[in-house]
Structures are given as structure tokens and as C-alpha cells.
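Figure 2 data, in text form.
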Amino acid sequence: MKHGITQLFIPGPTNVPDRVRRAMNVLMEDQRAPDLPALTLGLFADLKRAFRNSSGRVFMFPSSGTGAWEAAIQNTLSPGDKVLMSRFGQFSHLWVEMAQRLGLDVTVIDVEWGKGVPLEAYEQAIAADAAHEIRAVFVTHNETATGVTSDIAGVRRLLDAHSHPALLFVDGVSSIASIDFRQDEWGVDLAVAGSQKGFMLPAGLSFLSVSDKALAANEDNRPKFPRSYFIFADQIAMNDQGYFPYTPPTQFFHGLRASLDMLFEEGLENVFARHHRLAEGVRRGIAGLGLKLVAAGPEWHSDTVSAIYVPEGVDANRVIRIGYERYNTSFGGGLARLNGKVFRIGHLGDLNEVMCLAALASAEISLADAGAKIAPGAGVAAAHAYYREAHAVAEEARVAAE
């Protein structure tokens, strides 16, 4: 018999705060009620704030983030369009696979797993495209499988340097509302996020934040993909009134209201700083254990998930199973080519330092039980020292500012 709670340290779904869960605990309600827009119109406006999208609009679909991926492609591109993509983990791979299945002409740049979007290779492809045949450039902001974050601003700079009109698509499922994201400033045309990551909700709702440029592409005379459920026009007609063209998950909307309130009360800059601080403590802990991250260097480190190589001769899947069965802890597994070699610690959403220390403690004992030769307590001690130092520095800065 298990006691206490099962600690959740996967990179999504993440922990749902009590405040959000309580907000969702409402009676079923009429999705056509005259007072529903009082809730939904505010959500649309505040989602734009979270994406830092001042002039476009945000769509909400009852789906995982994959649905918003599909909606982004189907509403702005045409079958056979040439697009530029890169593949450096399981989720960037799946996005490429979707684009190919939908009939896009995909130029794929394969990158070593552990690195991110290849700016030099992207620039070569953009510079060579004098006829502007590339209609869109795709970027996975945070590759959840490998714990790697890419430079979105860098992609925008190279597009601007070559005056290239391609749409910029960004998968921000495991970054937005956790890692710094600036849609307007970075010229992102279509940004995808999911409810189950930084927005601290259950899985089942996706967000697609769209620029004015992307909305114009949706409305131009070029033929688009066949679509019905994900069509922008039906959404726009109903969303502008605060409603939806199909039955929406209204309980989610109450939870989203609470989640957005929590994010804005903390302040987005503070949210990003907290995620960096927590992630850095986990990284210090992993280094203290003598283990290595999949991320090939600090420039690629993700502040939402760390993918960790287990020592030679240790089965990562056994580490994960021991953590779950013996120590009530869920870690993420290694995906595709990393299966059995890697376990992942998700450190995003409703999280604090003590929770991260618990993740490291459970990782230590699970690794040791699986046969890894580690120094018990070394990871926790390294993270403990960093967190104390980080808070001391922050306190000094606060006193100096008063």
C-alpha cells in the first residue's frame, strides 16, 4: 500500500495547483449562456498577454498541443508548400512527420540529439532561397525529449537579415508560460502551447497564438488544406462573441482563469526567473552525482526539463520503475533512441526548491537501487547549496533596491 502522494516530476502533465483544481470544481454549465463571454473574452485577452502577442489573436482548441500544430499548418499553408524544419528530438521529429503526412514539401535538417535549432544551416537555406519558395520556417523552442532550448530570436534575426517573408512557426508546448517567450518582439507568426505544462492545467486544451501576418495568410486566395474542426473562420466568428463553434470544456476555462491569475500575480519575469533558478539547482545536483545531461552544453540547457544519462551498465527504465514502485515518484522516460539510456526530470509549473530537492533525492535512491555507483546525498547537497546561495543573492539585491 502506498502512502502520501506520488511525486510528479515528468515534463507534463505537470502538477495542478489546488487553486486551479478548486476553480475547476464547478457544476456543469450552459455553453451558450449569456454570461459565458464574461469569462471567455477575458481568457482570450490574457492568453495574448501570456504569449506577448499584442495585435493578433489566440485560439483555444479542445485537443493536445498536436491539434494546434495541425491547425497552424492547415489554416496558413497550402499542400505542396516548401517549408524548412529541423529534427533533434522526438517532438521535433513528430512535427516533421506531421508536415510530411499533410503533404508539405519539407526540407529537414537533422541535428545531433543534445543540440537545438541549427542557426547556421537555417541561414544557408534562407540565403539560398532567393525566389522565396520557402513559405514557412519551423522551430521547436524547447525539445522535451532532450532538455534542449533553442534561440527563437536568432531565427528571427536571420530571416530579417535576408528580408525573407516566410512565416515563423514555433512549438512552445514545454516553454511558453515557463521560459521567456516574446511573440511580438521575435516576430513569431504561429506559436503553439498546451494546457498541461506551464499553464498548470490537466491535458486536453491547446492554445495557438497567431500574428496578424498569419491571419492574413489564412485569408489569402491560396488554396488551404481541407479542414473543418480546426478551421479559423468558424472559430473567429464565434470567439469574437465569447463562444465556440462546438461544445467547449467549460470547466477548463475556470481553471485557466485561476492559472493565468497565478502567473500574472507572480509576474511573468519572476516566473521565468523561478524556472531558471529551480532548473539550475537540478543541473547542479545532477553534476554533483557525476551524471551528464543530454544537452550538449550550457547554451542548450532547458529550464523546464533535464534529460539525464544514466551510468554505463544501468538501465534507465529500471531507474524509472524503481522510482515509481518503491518511492512514489514519476520520472520521464527516454524517448525513441534515448530509451533505456535516459531519465528525465521535469521542473516546470507549480514547483519550488524543496520539490526539486525531493526529485533529486528520489533520483539518487532509485539510481543506487538500480546499481549506479553514486555518492548518496551528493546531488541534493549540490542543489541545496545553490538554492541557498541564489536566495542570498536575491535578498541582497532586494535590500539594496529599497
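Caption note: The radius of gyration is 22 Å.
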